[in-house]
Design goal:
By secondary structure, the chain is an alpha+beta fold. It is built from 13 helices and 19 strands. Strands 13, 14, 15, 16, 17 and 18 form a 6-stranded antiparallel sheet that branches. Strands 3-2-4-1-5 form a 5-stranded mixed sheet, with helices on one face. Strands 9-8-10-11 form a 4-stranded antiparallel sheet, covered by helices on one side.
């Protein structure tokens, strides 16, 4: 399911990215010969083109008929784009006439530059055409965040509202944190925002963290090696709110259901030992596999207990409540009107982008390169069950990443074209088509090498974990 979600998400983002190039090209009367969703090596699933006053379609056709060639069409139809659907779901492209890119090199251009070609347009128009994809991706992300807020609203859990404290990864425990600690201040500044805490710990080189531990305050002195450990162990989450063990439903054959437990029961003890948090209770159950334990719980605020058999896997056979808004009464749910959601979406998009860009420095820390991931890493971001909220949130994030990565000034990316066009505007000297063709080849080689490395990391991690 997460792979299907990734393909669907990337299809939307590639389609809108290439549509940005197409719209600006059409605006400045540069011909767009082909617009493709997915790559079409050897054959296309679908081709469509309008000429002679009507649309023409071809299914599973390997070669475009000569009658569709713009040279054989009436003058009024020669500017019409061939729309296609390829069969390799890894991207797409927009073939703009007179532009050296991944679809063609310098030798593929017309011998005599034509007025409807990209290369004959003024530099400022070419700048708009090449930046159109990045611009549309960025706008798409902001719109998606706005739509998400307008439809689902937003839940906020201040740090102090996590009444059971936080559950920490081992790298945090090694720094001196203890399970249940509640972070109050970092380097002398009070913090109460969960996102800000994670950002300050990883990107702010935190040195001194004050936590509330039981009924007193304690100070954790950071080692300065947190980022290195996070990279080396590929830590996905430093901390998460500790939640109570509240029964939501039962799995088939549940021993807890047979014993008489009901949805809504909140487990607070095992064999008389009081436990507040889900992780404590699951750890205790794992120590009593195949045994019958006394489970203490609250039902409608009334304490009760019963004997329940623990399965061989150390489970009671229950599905627990994970909705933070239901578990913590202090969670603040914010509903937005459409007009409120738009500025909130813009703010969220900009904050997400700046956090992502700041986080790239972790790639240059020791062990950072090994955390570079490809399609497998991206697919793992999506849940293994379908969730429209998660899908659109992650699609918005990927839209921002795609926009930023494409603007990096590397030949083969939009940023490379932008760099050469800006150089032309500043120096008033236009790079030759041959130079652009060579630069494109070098850039594509670097991008291919990077893609192989990133996806190779994914493959190695998969092999290491399965064999």
């Amino acid at each position: 399911m997460n792979w299907l979600a990734l393909i669907f998400s990337l299809t939307i983002l590639v389609a809108t990215h290439e549509l940005g190039h197409l719209l600006f090209a059409k605006l400045f009367h540069a011909r767009v010969r082909r617009y493709y969703i997915f790559f079409n090596w050897q054959f296309s699933i679908l081709k469509a083109k309008k000429f002679g006053g009507k649309w023409h379609f071809l299914w599973f056709n390997a070669k475009t008929p000569d009658s569709w060639d713009e040279k054989n069409l009436a003058p009024e139809d020669q500017d019409n784009t061939l729309w296609g659907l390829g069969w390799i779901p890894l991207g797409g492209y927009c073939d703009i006439a007179g532009m050296v890119d991944e679809t063609k090199k310098e030798s593929d251009l017309e011998e005599v530059p034509q007025p409807w070609e990209y290369r004959t347009k003024p530099a400022w128009q070419r700048l708009c055409i090449i930046s159109g994809g990045v611009l549309v991706n960025f706008i798409t992300a902001l719109l998606l965040y706005g739509i998400i807020f307008a439809h689902w609203g937003k839940d906020e859990l201040p740090m102090h509202s996590a009444t059971l404290g936080f559950q920490y990864h081992q790298v945090m425990l090694d720094e001196g944190f203890q399970q249940g600690d509640l972070i109050c201040a970092i380097d002398g500044q009070e913090v109460d925002d969960y996102t800000e805490v994670n950002k300050r710990l990883l990107l702010g080189d935190a040195r001194e963290v004050v936590v509330r531990r039981s009924d007193s305050l304690a100070t954790v002195h950071m080692s300065g090696r947190l980022v290195q450990r996070v990279n080396a162990e590929r830590v996905k989450q430093l901390m998460s709110p500790r939640i109570p063990f509240v029964v939501k439903n039962f799995v088939a054959g549940s021993t807890a259901e047979k014993a008489g437990m009901l949805p809504g029961d909140s487990v607070v003890s095992i064999n008389g030992t009081h436990m507040d948090a889900f992780d404590e209770i699951t750890a205790a159950l794992a120590e009593h596999k195949g045994e019958t334990v006394t489970v203490g719980f609250y039902r409608n605020r009334i304490p009760a207990s019963m004997g329940v058999e623990v399965s061989g896997a150390g489970k009671l056979g229950v599905q627990c409540e994970t909705d933070i808004a239901r578990l913590f009464p202090d969670v603040r749910h914010i509903d937005y009107t459409l007009f409120e959601a738009i500025p909130a979406g813009i703010s969220q998009g900009w904050e997400t982008l700046t956090t992502y860009v700041s986080g790239l420095k972790m790639l240059f820390a020791p062990g950072g390169a090994q955390n570079l991931g490809g399609f497998g890493t991206m697919a793992s971001l999506f849940p293994d069950h379908w969730s429209w909220s998660a899908f659109w949130t992650l699609t918005a994030l990927l839209a921002l990443i795609l926009a930023f990565m494409n603007i990096i000034p590397i030949p083969g990316l939009d940023g490379g074209h932008l760099l050469f066009t800006l150089w032309e505007i500043i120096t008033r000297r236009k790079p030759s088509d041959k130079f652009l063709s060579y630069a494109q080849s070098v850039g594509m080689f670097l991008l291919l090498a990077l893609m192989i490395f990133a996806n190779g990391n994914d493959l190695w991690r998969w092999l290491s974990s399965n064999f």
